[in-house]
Design brief:
Length: 123
Amino acid sequence: MAFAEVSGTITRIFYNGKGAEVTEVFEKQDGSEGKPRYSLWFAQPHGLNEGDSGKWRGALSVKVDEWTDQQNEIRHSAKVSLNGAKAIEDKSRGQQQPSAPTNAPATGGDTWNAPGSFDDKPF
């Protein structure tokens, strides 16, 4: 299962507060502005409001939709969702949550959490 992170501004709330649409803004190579949208799905009502900004992480899923444009041409678009979304950073409320639990010891630097010293010979 793939996980993804998105950051941006909440532009829509739906599904009784368990869903939200977030829009990222970036500059394209040609200088124009890109605004991809993502759906965030939460297990419980999230309490977010339109205009809130932050960063979220969740299980990635994509659904391809087929539709007909004004010229009667068949078009396709991808709807990207993050399921089981969790807030990593909530800028609008001044809160920040860790993206993953840390197991670093209090002495610092030992990310593998290796036991004490290895001065003794094993034999």
